[in-house]
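Hey team,

Sharing the Alpha/beta hydrolase run so nobody has to redo it. Sequence (314 residues) first:
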Amino acid sequence: MLRLFAAPRLNIRKDYEKVRRMQSRFAALLMPPYRTSRWQPLPHDEHLHVPVRFFQPKVKRREDVLVFFHGGGWVTGDIDTYTPACVRMAELTGCAVASVNYRLAPEHPFPAGLEDCYGVARVLLDEPHRVGAADAGQVILVGDSAGGNFAAVISLLLRERGYRPPDRQILIYPVTHWDHDPDTSPFASVRSHGGDYRLTNAEVEDYFDLYVPDRQQRRDPHVAPLLAPDLSGHPATLVITAELDLLRDEGEAYGRALADAGNTVQTYRVEGALHGFISLPRFSQSVQDAYEVINAFLDGDPVEGGHCTPREAI
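Structure output:
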């Protein structure tokens, strides 16, 4: 049954523009009513503006602001195609959500999109009032897939460059490693789930070819944060993985690496879930499971439940 929902087998290197158009049409059909405002911070200098869309929940239950970096392999996805997911995120958490529209590869390869997101994070941590936060402790970095990669790397960059990191981050099935070849990858999930379901080994390779054409550069910790030599001093972290996702094991390995470096980390594996599930409708069991854990994390409660990765693993 799950294979029926697998993504069509496209050559992302050739068809990424087609995928973008398809995503835009599909998102337009699902576009919900929402309360939003737009503003453009200046993360680098007066010449570069990064659009951010701000979503308010109907019922505000928390003062936290979730700064969201969308997925799409650094190549697809944008502020419009992720609007349904961001509306759902605001409603299910009761938090304001700030969605970042970073530049995409291959038109803007590494590190363009990363620097856009880093710049926005810097602005909001330095000036949290821009999104209605009382202080930087209420600014939480969130990302799924490639966006989870950005959130992880931004926390690394902030520490390396001597700036204040966020207090908390949520990484949803993040990309943390560079090797997704089933013959050489250190992760079993790459071999178990890289051929049949929502995201394949070949598609990840295509995305990397567009985002980081230089294969040696893919080992840079700013591309593959799992390879960072020092992961100390990171935010309290929630890592959410999907059972049937080829990125599952590298996400959980990143959680273990953060914990080994002395950080506070919780991981949660959503059973039966595919890559990309955070964009499913709110009645999806995977979405319900994930947001139950996200809300517990936002409240400072421990992650519990039968779907959770065992504590001894992290």
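Residues 38-45, 306-314 have pLDDT under 50 and may be disordered.

Ping me if you want the raw files.
A.
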